[in-house]
Amino acid sequence: MWYENNIQAYCDDEEQYNMLKAMFRLSCTICDQAESLGKDFVKKGHVFKNLDMMRRHLSNVHKVQMCGLCLEGRKVGVPLTISH
């Protein structure tokens, strides 16, 4: 049995656990997809400690905001949340 802290759920299947962990990983898809790292970009695969740190990074570095309504009822993973 595996526990995923970001969604506070248990999984009894390792494949499902790994899928959920990837879906709810707090990482910057803009930095991950960048050809070269710009100023203040984070390295590919960097995981933020919490959602507020990731939101500040997106706002300060990339000048985008994560949709608050999407985050509030977050039924999809963070990488699928709309950024404006």
Describe it for me?
With 84 residues, this protein is mainly alpha-helical. The chain has helices at 14-23, 29-33, 51-62, 68-72, and strands spanning 2-4, 9-11. It has a two-stranded antiparallel ribbon with strand order 1-2. A hairpin with a 4-residue loop joins strand 1 and strand 2. The longest helix is centred in the C-terminal third of the chain and has 12 residues, at 51-62. The radius of gyration is 14 Å and the shape is globular. The relative contact order is 0.16.
Task: Name the descriptors.
mainly alpha; 84 residues; two-stranded antiparallel sheet; single chain; 38% helix; globular
Our estimate of the beta-strand percent is: 5-15%
What is the structural class? mainly alpha
Tally of alpha and pi helices: 4
Which bin fits the share of residues in helices?
Answer: 25-40%
Placed side by side, the strands forming the largest sheet appear as: 1-2
Largest sheet: 2 strands, antiparallel
Estimate the mean pLDDT confidence.
Answer: 79
Number of strands: 2
Coarse shape = globular
Low-confidence stretches: none
- What Rg is obtained from the alpha carbons, in whole angstroms? 14 Å
SSE arrangement:
Layout: E1 2-4, E2 9-11, H1 14-23, H2 29-33, H3 51-62, H4 68-72
Antiparallel strand pairs: 1-2
Briefly characterize the structure:
With 84 residues, the protein is mainly α. It has 4 helices and 2 strands; from the N terminus they run E-E-H-H-H-H. The protein is globular and about 40 Å long.
